[in-house]
């Protein structure tokens, strides 16, 4: 994807926001103006930066928000979380360096998240944009999910990010789990859905599955429909718009990225 709006102007760079969605396979850059209109969008292989995208990265953006995958993540109920027990929580993370661990509070779920970004990706983007705000997908998803969760019944959520799926579940309004799995195809997805449902005592045919990161026609959406009476696609609080219909459709795959500023206030 390579798109630049006819309304894109360099002298508006200080007012534009730059959203970056990065992982090991692909980088996506989205530039929006103050009206949330997409002024530029580039997606390219992470190991083969696009020449035009490189020029974009060199511009003096004042507002930069970067979403990265987490290397490890653990949740602790807020009522039992104690800052002096940080070493105990650290034992559940992959990296023993406490200075890399960040803590985020999800007030709506009454939980604390201790997490670490992937070190290589974090250092790479921190070098490019020292002033950028970093956001993990779980903040965006779990921060907005309760509007979709009934007080009774089971709900499974699936957020897709290239070769990863982030699964989470609620039962009778209570948060059960959140985990990240590597997948290559539908068979992998089916396996993790089945084993996860069995591990947490969820029905194989769920009342509802929430989906984000892919559209209705994607093979993963079709596969998930077999596990639920109803599937629902999560929507961000902030809508993005584009003059080009194909660009707007592509932007919708990254629907939560525009909500990143809400997680770093």
TrEMBL record:
Gene3D superfamilies: 3.30.420.250, 3.30.420.260. CDD domains: ASKHA_ATPase_BT3980-like (cd24013). This is DUF3822 family protein. It comes from Sphingobacterium phlebotomi.
């Amino acid at each position: 994807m390579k798109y630049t709006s006819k309304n894109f102007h360099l002298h508006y760079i200080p007012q534009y926001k730059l959203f970056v969605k990065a992982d090991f396979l692909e980088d996506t850059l989205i530039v929006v103006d103050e009206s949330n209109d997409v002024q530029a969008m580039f997606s390219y292989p992470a190991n083969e930066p696009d020449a035009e995208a490189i020029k974009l990265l060199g511009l003096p953006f004042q507002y930069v928000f970067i979403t990265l995958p987490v290397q490890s993540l653990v949740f602790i109920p807020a009522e039992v979380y104690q800052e002096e027990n940080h070493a105990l929580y650290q034992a559940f993370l992959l990296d023993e360096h406490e200075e890399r661990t960040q803590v985020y509070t999800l007030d709506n779920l009454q939980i604390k998240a201790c997490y670490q970004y992937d070190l290589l990706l974090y250092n790479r983007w921190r070098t490019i944009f020292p002033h950028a705000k970093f956001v993990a997908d779980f903040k965006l998803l779990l921060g907005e999910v309760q509007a979709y969760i009934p007080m009774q019944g089971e709900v499974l959520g699936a957020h897709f990010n290239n070769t990863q799926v982030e699964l989470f579940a609620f039962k009778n309004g209570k948060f059960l789990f959140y985990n990240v799995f590597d997948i290559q195809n539908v068979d992998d997805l089916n396996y993790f859905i089945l084993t996860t449902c069995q591990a947490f005592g969820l029905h194989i045919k769920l009342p509802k599955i929430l989906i984000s990161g892919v559209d209705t026609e994607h093979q993963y959406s079709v596969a998930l429909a077999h596990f639920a009476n109803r599937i629902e696609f999560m929507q961000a609080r902030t809508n993005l718009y584009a003059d080009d219909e194909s660009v707007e459709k592509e932007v919708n795959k990254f629907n939560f990225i525009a909500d990143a500023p809400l997680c770093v206030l």
